[in-house]
Amino acid sequence: GEAGGGTVFVDASLLPELRDARLDADGLCCGAAVPIARVIDLLEQGGHDAPAFGVLASHMKRVASTQIRSVASWAGNLMFTREHPDFPSDLATILAAAGASFDVLGADAKMRTCSAAQLLKTTGRVLVLSMLIPRLPAGSVFETFKVSQRHVFAHAIVNFGACVEFGTSNGRVVKSARIFVGGACETLLDASEAAAVLVGRQLDNAAFQATLGALRKDVMAAASKNPRNSLDFRLHLVGSFLYKTFLSANAALPPQMKSAIVPFVPAEARPISTGTESFGTDPSEGPVSQYITKRSAFIQASGEALYPSDYSGPGALFGQVVLSTSAHARLVSLDPTPALKMPGVHDFIAASAVPGLNCPNGSIGGENLKEKVFFEVNDEIPCMGVMLGIVVADTWRQAHDAAKMVVQRYAALGPVVAGIDEAVQLRAVYTGMPANVEPSAYGRRGARPEHAAGLEHGAAAVGLTAMKSGLLSAKGSFKTGGQNHFYMETQSVCCIPHDGDQWEVICSDQDSNTTQACVALVLGIPQHCINVKVPRAGGGFGGKLSRQCLTACAAAVAAKKLRRPVRVQNERLDDMRLVGGREPLQFDYEVSFDASGRVDSMDVTMTMDPGWFFGDCTGDMAMAVGWADNCYQYKNFKVKTQAALTHKPHSTSMRAPGCMQSILAAEVAIEHVARTVGRPAEEVQALNFYNISESPTTPAGDHIGQAGYNWTIPTLWTQIQKQARYTERKKVVEAYNLANRWTKKGIAISPVKYTMGIDFYSSGALVCIYGDGTVLVSTGGSEIGQGLNTKVALCVAETLGAPFEKVVVGPRETSKIPDNTGTGGSGTSECTSEAAIMACQKLVPLLKPYREKSKTWEDAVTAACADKVGLVATGWYQFKKTINANAYATYGTAVSEATIDVLTGEVQVDRVDVLMDLGTQLDAAIDMGQLQGGFIIALGHLLTEELKLDQSGTQLNLGTWEYKIPTAYDIPLEFNVSLLKDSPNPVGIKGSKASAEPAMCLIPSVYLAVKNAIYAARAQALGSQGWFMLNTPLTPEVIRAAVGVGDEQLVVP
């Protein structure tokens, strides 16, 4: 209510009447302020003699997260659904099915009792007081179900609740029934007509078929228009849930059908993930190679670590960029007046305030010059999410709210190209990638610029049509989706003016030199006037190699105009609107091979969706091409590239850019070959491995087995199958599939050859030793969570002979280390470590006389300082080229096993075994963590992360509500990781190899495992195990569509 002109908020949790909860003979009665977690506890207490209570409790555990359930009330959930009827509330659906009743107080102050469906339809002001969940009659059937994009902490795509009560006569004849469905319709569906069909019937197949028909009719009458999932999928789920309900009521259910009613996806249905780690260390190299926790792990876990988003300056203001709200349109006008009238707002800054070049990536050049810091009135706006200006205010909230008030008017220019398919239809596909991009724009280790336009190797140029007669052939078109970076810290920067025209830019970035150069061009000042500082970045994954320049330049322009520090941190949805992620890629392949499966020729056309301009994606395409052979020795190999320009935010590099998808495509093609010749995929994979006895040269120009380019795939392939008991488990999986109709398992294996062109990196380091024996190291690498600083400290401690705890690695600053290569590609840690080693090697001779005389490190340093010895040195590392195009390759193999629910499309990764050749790792703990984390990121791309646009250019998967990265419950149930022992890299820094991105390219093992499970389902549903195409991501909808089970196969025994 209103009091003194302000709104009065009442904390309902403090009202005893609303906090009361009790179990009695009638059921469970809960006040409106009782948290969901408390409701669950009480339901579980009463579940021993009321089975429906246990079903409700299990489903409620899938609502939100543990933290939210502990404070959020059940009534809050229902009232939110009342205000937003399209919200697919699990609580509303299952409580309605359970027959819960609610005491409410209306605006007329009269108490009344209503059902859940009635409560949601009430109008006006209503106060919910309590809820009663009744005990159901003995023998009743009560079931609830839910499918979501991710196993936990995800809203339902469709949820379902059904209650069936029987008469007292023999024969289990239905007396009454309730069926409620959420998500399939615009609002909660009370499927009363379908429920009425059950009355007077037994729960047999005839009743099921009749009820299913009526239920489908109910859904179709008010079907949801939500474009994120198809109506067909929603209808399949509704039918599957009804079918599971009927099966659960069957006491004589055949054994092969019982798995349909055994949940395996919910958190409580699975154990905590377990696993093993196995690695070797070199005692002579200590502390390098040992298992040492990342230096900053503890302060990061406690929240004490500082990130760029935490930094400020004297009198700092907050900025929020204003993003375009239309795609493929002309900006007619831009009116900031409403924003400027809001409290705390200082200014709206647009293109007219840019003192220098109005381009956020000007130093990269080429295609990147099309982009502007701030687009202007009368400009063509390519997509939603380009910057039009920045609002500056006293607080972050004021700036954020005001930015949304800037009025934008547009004139449409034509249809919006939302993806590769639309680009093909509208002839917006361009052969090759532009050649006018500066070399720095390729910015990708080992990616040769010419590969962006394609690659030919062997006799590929003659084409498959002229290949030898007698060969078999196969062709397919494989599509992979995009992926958002979803770093923990969104794009963040603090721009601080100093004396004259000097600037400190504290930025969450991976490439400070690019940030420095681009900000300098935008401000129209020399680079030496700008010091870019990175204390640490809250993740990057490639999204801060160049796209950080957008917010950095915007903040710099604002700070320049106002002569005050300006802080910018994107809200998550805005960050996803502004920064495109991994590029979607389509692979059209044709492969020729003999009857054994040995490949003769591979011809691939790669089509990339870079967004509205090429930019960064040229280098990513070059990587996709250069890595596309994976481990396979093709006699003839040809890749052609295409770009499909779309009206989407510009995509950019994301971990294993391009190549994670092209390596997956290679495995898709090899599996196609294996199915065609009727051999197990693992046999055809091994048959086509590079044969070192033939001194092969890869299409990219690497001479395997020469100049330090080792080849350990055969060893890894044999060892992983033994470690993972692959042959034995494959038989167990086959037996499981024969014994289970509605869940299927698959198991598969895949290899990776991940080339590392570390000659791309130029890395610097500055080492300072102080009189007390402490050591400060400055490097050109950014600590983005990958443990770079810890690895550098280990190498410095070992080289100097100093205690590890005495060495600290400071922030990355361009004023200390200029012209360093950006941090990315899993190679920066090793190259930066070598630069630090080189610096230390200059100091070791200076300290040697004092070390010989002193007992301790500290005494030696103190003595050297007393003698005025200069204990400061720099190191600059760049790998010396060999005959190979790349320095080396990181190799790995993985065996994965997965289970799918044939009826819903849900998938559980049961077990993953990974064996990697990382040489002699620099830090076992960090490299293990990087390997495991990289694999899980790739698992997200494969299974849960989906990006869609509608025809207006609006992103449909913005924010945490719709975009689902993996959680702890998406980690394989068993995750075993081993490192190949006694296999130092002949050309690596201290024998090491790159660790994170190579492991991501083992995701084909999971893809093939899921596909093998689908094959098993199709064999039973369609009577065929013939090859089929399976595009990614493998969401429940994709899997459910692939299994080929129609309603006619849902038969109640």
Structural summary, described in words:
With 1053 residues, this protein is α+β, with helices and mostly antiparallel strands. Strands 15-17-13-25-22-23-24-33 form an eight-stranded mixed β-sheet, sandwiched between helices. Helix 24 (788-800) links the parallel strand 31 and strand 32. It is globular. 56% of the residues are buried.
Short structural description:
It contains 31 helices and 37 strands.
Query: Spans of 5+ residues with little confidence (pLDDT < 50)?
Result: 436-445, 461-466
Strand residue percentage: 15-25%
How far is the first residue's CA from the last residue's CA?
59 Å
For the sheet with most strands, the description reads: 8 strands, mixed
Structural descriptors:
37 strands, 31% helix, 22% strand, 1053 residues, eight-stranded mixed β-sheet, alpha+beta, globular, six-stranded mixed β-sheet
Summarize the helices and strands and which ones pair or pack.
Blueprint: E1 2-3, E2 6-7, H1 16-19, E3 21-23, E4 27-31, H2 36-46, H3 51-60, H4 66-71, H5 74-83, H6 90-98, E5 101-106, E6 111-115, H7 116-121, E7 126-134, E8 141-148, E9 156-166, E10 174-182, E11 189-190, H8 192-198, H9 205-221, H10 231-248, E12 277-278, H11 297-302, E13 317-323, E14 329-335, H12 337-340, E15 345-349, E16 380-381, E17 387-393, H13 396-403, E18 407-412, H14 420-425, E19 429-431, H15 439-442, E20 454-457, E21 472-480, E22 492-497, E23 503-507, H16 512-523, E24 530-534, H17 548-562, E25 566-569, H18 572-578, E26 585-593, E27 599-608, H19 617-626, E28 636-644, H20 659-677, H21 681-687, H22 713-723, H23 726-739, E29 743-756, E30 763-769, E31 775-779, H24 788-800, E32 807-809, E33 812-813, H25 828-853, H26 857-866, E34 872-877, E35 888-901, E36 907-917, H27 924-943, H28 959-962, E37 974-979, H29 996-1000, H30 1004-1022, H31 1036-1043
Parallel strand pairs: 12-37, 13-25, 23-24, 27-28, 31-32, 36-37
Antiparallel strand pairs: 1-2, 3-4, 4-7, 5-6, 5-7, 8-9, 9-10, 10-11, 13-17, 14-16, 14-18, 15-17, 19-28, 20-28, 21-26, 22-23, 22-25, 24-33, 26-27, 29-35, 30-31, 30-34, 35-36
